[in-house]
Amino acid sequence: MIFVFFQLILLLTPLINEQDDLIKKLDAISITPEQISIDNKLKIEKKGGHLQGIQTYRYNDETYLYASGSSSQYGYLVSASETSVKRLHVLRKKPLKHAGGFQISNNWLAVGIEDNELRNVSEVHVYQLKDPFDELILKAVIDRKGDWERATAGAVAIIEWENRLLMLVGDWSNRNVDFYHASLDHDRTILDFQKSGEIEMATYDKKDWVDDVPWPYQNINLVKYGEQLLLFGFSSGEGDANVLDVYELEDPFSKSPLLTKIYSRTFPKTKSTRFGWGAGIQYENNKFTLYSCGENILKQMEVARYSSH
């Protein structure tokens, strides 16, 4: 019995150490961001909407930024260098004029575009990125239709996991999260997306969570951390606090995925940027960096970068 006990301790020790290391890395993110103003000379519709998400993209050893946005006329993405906004990508026009929170993972970009008035229809687009200033290459579309607010796609996450493409789609205020996956053939062509499971956040069992609050996330991002699959959620929270929540995700391809909140932290809002307008995570060189953006793109696109100490 003692031998079995010590064997169990040896098996659990790497997992405990990995979890402690993760918490240390997240705690090391500065609450004071570097404020970046990116010049813009493009005409971008801003009435009736705001920016929804921000992500980094590495191409030819350079870092670029993408942002998603909604307006009264169209849903869109922009791509930018670290000094200027270079291209406007109109995804869909009214009524699908609300492009929500999105994610870039490697060269996959997944974003939902919804009718934010009727709130009963949306599309999820999956693109394969190359040069950030070229036309977007659309690889898959998921049509969502149904009940009011249930068929929306306000926040989308994507990652390659266990040789498949895993995608999570949050509906209005992320009250429900739907799980999709697709097989990839030898040249990384998407064969087909299938819905595999879903989670209703309000009723989900939270007994092992660090707290029992599932915020209405503006953005959700999936990250591979060692052997763990993590889900990051960004929300404006309440008052003057931005909220970052981190979940461990297990069995993501099953009908009943396991989601456990393992970390939560608040960051002060700034005058020009906040998580409720758009945020995202970058995990590179064993460090986490958070990004947040301003409400709209005017003569500049305002960006906050939260780096590790």
Number of domains: 1
Mean pLDDT: 93
Number of E-state strands: 20
How many helical elements? 1
Short description:
The protein has 309 residues and is mainly beta.
How would the blueprint of this fold be written?
Blueprint: H1 2-27, E1 34-39, E2 51-59, E3 62-69, E4 74-80, E5 85-93, E6 98-105, E7 108-114, E8 121-128, E9 138-145, E10 155-161, E11 164-170, E12 176-184, E13 190-200, E14 219-225, E15 228-235, E16 241-250, E17 258-268, E18 274-284, E19 287-293, E20 300-306
Antiparallel strand pairs: 1-20, 2-3, 3-4, 4-5, 6-7, 7-8, 8-9, 10-11, 11-12, 12-13, 14-15, 15-16, 16-17, 18-19, 19-20
Describe this structure in words.
The chain is mostly beta strands and 309 residues long. It has one domain: Tachylectin-2, Chain A. It is 8% helix and 53% strand. It has one helix and 20 strands. The longest helix is centred in the N-terminal third of the chain and has 26 residues, at 2-27. The protein is globular and about 50 Å long.
